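Hi all, long-time lurker, first post. I run a small reading group and we've been trying to get comfortable going from sequence to structure in the token notation. Rather than ask abstract questions, I figured I'd post a concrete chain and ask someone more experienced to write out its structure so we can walk through it together at our next meeting. Sequence below, copied exactly:
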Amino acid sequence: MTMSILARNIETRKRDLGISTSIQLAKDSGVSRAVLTNIKNNPDKSIMLDSAVRLAESLRCRLEWLATGKGSPTADEYIIASKIEHGAPLLTLNELVNTDLAELTESLLESDRERLPCPIGNSHNQIVIRVSEKLGKYYAGGYMWFDVTKSPVSGQIVLVKTESNVEVMEFHSAHGRQFLKSLNDDLPMDLRFSEINDQTLIATFSAYAIF
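-- Answer (accepted) --
Happy to help. Here is the structure in token form:
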């Protein structure tokens, strides 16, 4: 028998919260066991609004999700999903110097930081920085998105952390060795490359755009 969205979501939240029986849920919510059984066995049956509200409160979930399956189950998850939908948090390179980037991206999900949508799609692993000066082919005034979980391939742009700063550079790999190339066009070509030693790659380029 096919269960309704409501019945399926009730069972999902019961599992999530460790509610083992309908008797326990009926006691916690004040919704009778008969109503719960009716929801489970009769997918076309509807319930009263006050019963749905009581169930949502007891199951610690959003009423809209419980009834329709739309959005995230809980308010916190819904807020986070909404923020990710609006894009990546806008950061400065200075903010990244003394910060663990993975922890920072998680903490920013709970902040009101300005966000910009990524041209190739949004994810919670992204950050965005404003380009303040020309970096190779990337012009000042544009924005660069980086993924903090993505490993680079040779030729990709990366964020590189040293003891004192964070820079945007180009990653290269050859013959088992890894190098970084400066994007400063004013440097002679033979001074642009350096072998990776104490530097740490913290994020990999995803996209660039000018608004």
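A couple of things your group might point at:
The radius of gyration is 25 Å.
The mean pLDDT is 86.
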